[in-house]
Automatic annotation (TrEMBL):
Residues 74-321 form the GP-PDE domain. It holds the Pfam family GDPD. One of its GO terms (molecular function) is phosphoric diester hydrolase activity. Residues 22-50 are annotated as: Disordered. GO terms for biological process: lipid metabolic process. Residues 1-21 form the signal peptide. This is Glycerophosphoryl diester phosphodiesterase family protein. It comes from the Bacteria. Residues 41-50 have a biased composition (Low complexity).
Amino acid sequence: MIRVLLAAASALVLAACSQGAASAPETEPDTQPEISGGPGTETASAEPATASVAAGLSTRLPELFDCLRETGGVAVAAHRGGFAPGYPENAIETMQYTYDQGIRVFEVDVAESRDGVLFLHHDDRFGRTIEGDGYNSDTDWSAIAGKRLKDVDGKVTSFHPPKLTDALLWAKETGAIVELDRKKTTSFANIWAAVVAAGAQGNVIMISYSDEEAAEIARVAPTAMMTASARGGRDIETLEALGVDRTNVIAWTGTREPDPPAFARLLDEGVEPAFGTLGRKGERLDDQYWADGDGSEYQRLVDDGVTLIATDEPYKVADWLTADDEGWSACASR
């Protein structure tokens, strides 16, 4: 991975987000896994290729992923924002750190407080990644905003839970893409209202876990890019019958074993396959693939046509591959 170290720009973006997070609590529009190893330290000089990777996102998401599919490119998605020692999951500071390593896609979790504020948090209750106890749905934003985040080792950091709005504004500023994973305390309608209010439609992929959820996303956000479970033409036709536009679909194919025949069927349908190597520590494919220190399995996924790889090891994967840099350079600013 070509490393992109834009320190001045990073500081400005984080300062703006920090000011937003520190402001008085407000209601959002429409009332609404552990990682092994840490990021590397290798950097690259400011060559023309680096400048291309650093360029912001100006291509519409359907065209971006079409381009990646057609050119053999891939997007590496950092699960829960790309966490590492000293950098907690679902934190803007962590996403900026990960962005500075050259990663451009971030899967984050969206919960809702008792008083209707959307914020980033995976679990139903506090304790594992946010200090204190209690539940998201029983706690007002004013109390949540003051809590501190814990890193992957359980150490309390100086970072605080961010509002979804601040994460969306950060994505717009940097040109990053955020995949939004709805938690049960909120709704797709509330999330999309916040996306529209932030003007971040071009930076967002919605995540669905069933055909019914995909249909709901298509209903409340007809233009939204989404991941939806599919392994071939019949699955795509089922989604279309539910009102889902296939041009907005990235086909999620699971986290267990790669399925090259399914990847081929999806490519024949003009739909981008996605695959996840993330999961429970010790059981996930990330751990199996890196057991020998060789990341060739990720290249095999790219060679088989996978266009989006979701991983708990984004730093290692992005270092190993070149198709992510090349794809972003070719497709992000067409």
